[in-house]
């Protein structure tokens, strides 16, 4: 998930002195927020998981941590899934818009649009790659959600 954040934050280009950044696209800001939320949740969970792995018992007795795991995994999973959907949706729409813009301008006789098209497509492709990395994080979280559900119900695997 942190890889998705790094990819989206470093996604920018300059064309004729005008800089385009990921933050210019609201959908890509949401992808960053989803990636950051996933990383933050993982960092919160890490000390508890390490303690349980080493000591073979939970740090806090009772039902608080199992319930937190159960609901936290679900909330973060849906947040990641929505980030994936937004990222891919924005990337696909931007790519179509750029293709139509370049084709329209070329049909009017404009030339020298190769650099514009190439840089914009690379920008959109990096957004798609970041969304793909976020998709891997979501799938991992979905599997974890299934496991925590089974553990909470006492069934286990």
Helices and strands, with pairings:
Layout lengths: L1 H8 L2 E4 L2 E4 L4 H30 L8 H44 L6 H39 L5
Antiparallel strand pairs: 1-2
Summarize the structure in words.
The protein has 157 residues and is mainly alpha-helical. 77% of the residues lie in helices and 5% in strands. It contains four helices and two strands; from the N terminus they run αββααα. It has a two-stranded antiparallel sheet. Helix 1 runs antiparallel to helix 2, helix 1 runs antiparallel to helix 4 (114-152) and helix 3 (64-107) packs antiparallel against helix 4 (114-152). The longest helix has 44 residues, at 64-107. The two termini are 26 Å apart. The mean pLDDT is 89.
Sequence stretches where pLDDT stays below 50 over 5 or more residues? none
Order of helices and strands: HEEHHH
Strand order, sheet with most strands:
1-2
Mean pLDDT level: 89
Distance between the termini: 26 Å
How many helix segments?
A: 4
Radius of gyration of CA atoms, rounded to a whole number: 21 Å
Percent strand equals 5-15%
Number of strands: 2
């Amino acid at each position: 998930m942190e890889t998705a954040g790094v990819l989206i934050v470093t996604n920018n280009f300059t064309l004729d002195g005008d800089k385009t950044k990921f933050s210019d696209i609201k959908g890509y800001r949401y992808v960053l927020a989803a990636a950051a939320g996933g990383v933050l949740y993982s960092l919160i969970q890490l000390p508890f998981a390490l303690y349980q792995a080493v000591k073979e018992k939970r740090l806090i007795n009772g039902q608080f941590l199992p319930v937190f795991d159960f609901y936290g995994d679900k909330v973060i999973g849906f947040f990641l899934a929505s980030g994936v959907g937004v990222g891919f949706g924005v990337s696909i729409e931007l790519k179509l818009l750029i293709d139509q813009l370049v084709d329209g301008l070329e049909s009017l006789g404009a030339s020298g649009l190769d650099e514009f098209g190439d840089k914009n497509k690379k920008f959109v492709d990096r957004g798609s790659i970041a969304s793909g990395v976020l998709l891997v994080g979501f799938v991992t979280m979905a599997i974890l959600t299934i496991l925590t559900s089974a553990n909470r119900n006492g069934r286990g695997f």
